[in-house]
Amino acid sequence: MEFQGAMVAPRRVTHHAVLSVLGGFLALFCTVGYLNAFGVFQQHYTSSILQDKTQSDISWIGSVTIFLLYLFAPITGILVDRVGPRWLLVGGSLGTLLSVFMTSLCMQYYQFLLAQGVLQGISMSFLTWPPMAVVARSLPTHRGLALGIVVGGSSVGGVVWAVMLARLLDYNSLSFGWVMRIVGFIMLSIFAIVCLTVREPRQHMPTPTPKNSSPNSTGSESEFSTQDSPPIATKEGVSKSDVFALIKNPVFICLTGGLAIGNLGLFIPFFFISSYATKLGIDSQTSFYLISIINGASLIGRVGPGYLGDRFGHYNICLLAVFSSGITAFCLTAAQSLGGLIAISAVYGFTSGGACVARIAGIRMQGTAMGMFMGFLAPTYGYLSVSLFTGATLVGGSVLVATARLLLNRIVLSPV
């Protein structure tokens, strides 16, 4: 008796996989979701603690966080493939908590930049990418939907954190320091759940099926072959040749380049929609909720495309999302009233979708592929401008995404 192939990824939905999705959802709730609410900090710092600084100066705090979140993604991706997610999540949790509690003590601009920018960005990188890689491996047949749910945590987080921070910062009995400590204690309980639930899928031997046998054959020397299942990652499974092959993949290059260009302007509305509304004469209490509207609409725009991508092709859905986000961004500054801002926020939140790198590399390279993919986006952050810039970068990026899609399949209506 012999077996062809050793380990397989589970095709059925296990309780470990479901728990990993839950943990990933909560991880992005506290990382990307928290960053999506930075517009609240932007408005608060401008009017109180850092009122001597310009909008551009303050935006660098959030920009540095996002820059480092993506910059450390390649390291995180390779480490999760080699050592697993557990210690990365523990280290990221401790670092993020330290950054939040240190931010509560900050008084000077450079202190905010170091605590809320540098330390928080590095720490959150080790919390963001491991759950996504684990979920992609745990649910290979429902990968798009599963990752859509995980990324949806950032949308829910953006809504919850924006509303909660706006309320707490406006509460006269609470100082800024205690607001941040409350945030830290909330994150502490959530991170405990994340570290306990995000686990690599169990490796198991497949059920053998007869090979070259007939109903009349007998004997103990029958040959067996495994059922066709995708291989599961091993800690030693990622070699240098795998990494270089991924880098030289023209589809990977076009997709990464397209989404890198698109991400040049992607976060502009998240950072400045509240301040823009205030300049139009809308009171700050109402303008804070525009951030929640963007994030709330993006929940549907992230989970929905994940499900549709499994049916109609992830590249097709990704291309549609990037292009429509660019068209919507061109219209941002055309909104001059509260109703217009609410409408444009909802549409932009819905259209700003997710990435589809999961279909380029196999399951064995999932962590490395996601890490490299996000790492290439790092140098594109930190340059915030106007809505025309946002629209131009997103539409321009969609051209390269379309090129990547056509390299895979030139049939336009084919699900890719």
Tell me how many strands there are. 2
Strand order of the largest sheet: 1-2
The proportion of strand residues reads under 5%
Total of DSSP H or I helical runs spanning 4+ residues: 17
Distance between the termini: 39 Å
What's the gyration radius in Å? Answer: 23 Å
Description:
It is a single chain. This protein has 416 residues and is mostly helical. It contains 17 helices and 2 strands. Strands 1-2 form a two-stranded antiparallel ribbon. Helix 1 packs parallel to helix 8 (143-170), helix 3 (38-47) packs across helix 12 (268-279) and helix 5 (73-83) crosses helix 7. The longest helix has 30 residues, at 109-138. The radius of gyration is 23 Å and the shape is globular.
Quick take:
This is MFS monocarboxylate transporter. With 416 residues, the protein is mainly α. The protein is built from 17 helices and 2 strands.
Keywords:
single chain; mainly alpha; 2 strands; 69% helix; 2% strand; globular; MFS monocarboxylate transporter; MFS_trans_sf
Topology:
Blueprint: H1 15-30, H2 32-36, H3 38-47, H4 55-71, H5 73-83, H6 86-103, H7 109-138, H8 143-170, H9 176-197, E1 208-211, E2 223-226, H10 240-247, H11 250-263, H12 268-279, H13 284-312, H14 314-330, H15 338-351, H16 366-377, H17 387-408
Antiparallel strand pairs: 1-2
Organism: Podospora aff. communis PSN243
Keywords: Membrane, Transmembrane, Transmembrane helix
Biased composition (Low complexity): 210-220
